[in-house]
Amino acid sequence: MSALRMVRAEDLEEQALAAVDQEFLEYFGPDFASWRPWQQEQYLAAIDKVHAEFAPQGVAA
Q1: CA-CA distance, 61 to 49, in Å (whole number)?
Q2: I need a surface site. Which of 3, 36, 37, 53 has the fewest CB within 10 A?
Q3: Closest CA to 43 of 61, 60, 20, 59
Q4: Sites in the chain below the pLDDT cut of 70
């Protein structure tokens, strides 16, 4: 009999955020401060999108 492991939303969110980090590091390099403003804006928008995806539904922020 195999044991089932519960997957927490926090774990999924962390994985999604790590994927965004990895993607942008590969595209633009590791030095966020040297990224152009549009690159930083794209990165922050991608992070915000992940947070929104995992935000509680129907709750005012």
Answers
A1: 15
A2: 3
A3: 20
A4: 1-3, 58-61
Question: Which residue type sits at 25?
Answer: L
- The one-letter amino acid at 49: K
pTM: predicted TM-score of the whole model, two decimal places: 0.77
- Rama region for 29: left / alpha / beta (φ>0; ψ in -120 to 50; rest): left
By the 8 A CB rule, do 39 and 28 touch? yes
31 three-class SS: coil
Provide the 3-class DSSP secondary structure of residue 8: coil
C-alpha count within 13 angstroms, C-beta hemisphere, residue 11 = 4
